[in-house]
Amino acid sequence: MNINDLYIYAKVYESKSINKASKELEYAQSNITQRIQLLEEQFNQNFFVRSYTGIKPTKEGSIFYEYSKSVITNTDNLKITFSENKKQILCSELLFNVLYKKQGIYEIAKYTFKLVTSSEMFIEPYNHYYDKVLTFNKLDLNNYTLVRTSSLKVGLYINKEYIANYDNLPLLINSDKKCPLRKLSLDILPDKNFIELDSLEAIINIVQNGEGIAILPPDLTSDSSTNNIKVDYKSIPYYEYAFNKRT
């Protein structure tokens, strides 16, 4: 018996129908019937009386339902407790993508991550407390202590098969006005025609398809079709803050 069997049993008991339960749980009826039969065999009891009109719980079936609900409730509460014990990390979505691909960004199962845009990062730390904050902008909050400063290396990327068409390709930038890649792109290439997009993934895909150029971190441009051109690598600083619980 596993906890999922108890979820299935409770749903069958409450709906008084294997057919209804299968639709709600999106399981095959045969699978649900098998799980119920296994439970009955394990406890050597008949939990339901079956007929053409449906199923009706026996006395033992009602007792087992109360047991199932108790176990389910306790399990759900335990999950919430364990989840609340996880450290919460607020992180720029761009930073998360780079750091996760580069170094696994800690042991990810031990943390709860909230990923936000660069603009949202200017607001979110002031609304809620997080155990750690990874951001491109400095925080001016007494509750947080700066624990590390690092930098993100970026370069100008193009599909190498389209280098000859560089002058005609648009510069792809993030539509988020606070995005550090956007600012750097416009500083380096102020006269270049540009297209705004709200998706980093879309920008990368368009570059790889040879339909645009963009300032990007090399860790996100591992595709062999792209290479760095014209602009030397630049560095964008980012910061790691820890919540100061004593403050």
TrEMBL record:
Annotated InterPro entries: LysR_HTH_N, WH-like_DNA-bd_sf, WH_DNA-bd_sf
Residue intervals of the HTH lysR-type domain: 1-58
Keyword Transcription regulation among record annotations: yes
Superkingdom of source: Bacteria
Keywords: Transcription, Transcription regulation
Name of a matching Pfam family: HTH_1
Coiled-coil stretches noted in the UniProt entry, renumbered to this chain: none
Family: Belongs to the LysR transcriptional regulatory family.
Protein's name in the database: LysR family transcriptional regulator
